[in-house]
Amino acid sequence: MNLGLFIRPCGHHIASWRHPDCQADAGENFQHYVEMAQLAERGLFDMLFSADSHTSWTVSESSIDLVHYVAWMEPWTLLSALSQHTKRIGLVCTASTTFEHPYSVARKFASLDVLTGGRCGWNVVTSGNETEALNFSAMPHLPKAERYKRAREFVDVVQALWDSWDEDAFPRNKQTGIFSDRSKMHVLNHHGEHFDVQGPLNVTRSPQGQPVIVQAGASDDGRQIAAETAEVVFTAHHVIETAREFYSDVKSRMVAYGRDPDTLKILPGLSVYVAPTREEAQAKLQTLQDLLHPKLAVALLSRRIGFDLTSYPLDEPLPQLPENVVVSSRADMIIGWSKEGPHTLGGLAKRFASSRGHFTIAGTPGEVVDQMQAWFEGGACDGFNVLPPYYNGGLRDFVDMVVPELQRRGLFRTAYEGKTLRDILGLPTPQSRYAKA
User: Fold this and answer.
1) Of 96, 80, 91, which is closest to residue 49 (Cα–Cα)?
2) Helix or strand or coil: residue 27?
3) Confidence band of 435 (pLDDT split at 50, 70, 90)
4) Which domain holds residue 416?
5) pTM > 0.85
6) pLDDT band at residue 60, thresholds of 50, 70 and 90?
7) Above 90 in pLDDT, residue 383?
8) Does a structural domain hold residue 283?
9) In whole angstroms, what is the distance from residue 213 CA to residue 206 CA?
10) Pick from 118, 106, 198, 113: which is nearest to 154 by CA?
11) What's the structural domain count of the chain?
């Protein structure tokens, strides 16, 4: 199976920064990230995955003073720096198709890919948090359908720019004075609904053909763009049934675009609390739950479902929610939880805050791998994007206890398979659109 590491300053439990073994200044502590990256590489993870947002308002504004995730390093800069402290692990980060431009995104990611010898990937997002638009002059926050239409054109332009030069386009012949071969340069001249881009890109072709395209999104629009363009999909499911349905649906949609389903890796999020005994693992989870401020839990839930719940009683059921056009898939998950239990707003918020709706396991190494194996072999995933509850202790537990058990069962590598991210993920090298048949 494939394993990504979802990096985050202090951890994925929202109270992680209060853990006694966690660094509260992790967001600006570069050495902390270096240790994290090298620990993941020791564990033979496929890639580091960094999400991003163009706003500090990641929860309800009333609770901003309770949250540590209001300032963090810009991920492309961070991963560029981490590339010099790692050798094999992939480096994937976010760039928004709503607030950035295709040429600059293509150039940045192509440069990082060349710099690392082909270890780079781009996480394509459309930016569902409407407060991000307030940081970009008068630009309105586009409706979801429009954001996805823009994203499709954006990705196509970026990938076309990555094909600007053939692999052998730069002879750099000092004797003849010929640096580049114009016949192997491709000018895009794109004129579309959202973008006009001439090209070519002023970066050589990637060592892996193109950086890997990563995407996250469970809505119908998200599934569709994944089927059209993605090579790795990060998704959220807390039970195997919904994960299996998502996996089957997205891979079946790929056929309509002439794509091989095996060229897409679907990695649900996974939060693990592991210890030699189940009781110790449960105690690790409870330690973080006890540090969780209830006001913060509700504020986080409010932001992720797009409806302010902070004024509602914690000991009463979840109120009726209006239809949400921004993050509807996550709202649907929460409504489903309210029918299963816990049945109070406070209980739902606390459950969501522990892993933000992702699959959570607390148990021994054998119990953790039993469930991972069931998902992997049961048609629910190609691996997981791991969300340690706190850094770096939670990651170290996974590397030292879970990875050896995966290897013992023959479910995970014992050495990296190649030098590029595509080699490691088992993905083909894309042929240039200008290649002769």
Assistant:
1) 91
2) helix
3) confident
4) 2-272+360-425
5) yes
6) very low
7) yes
8) no
9) 13
10) 106
11) 1
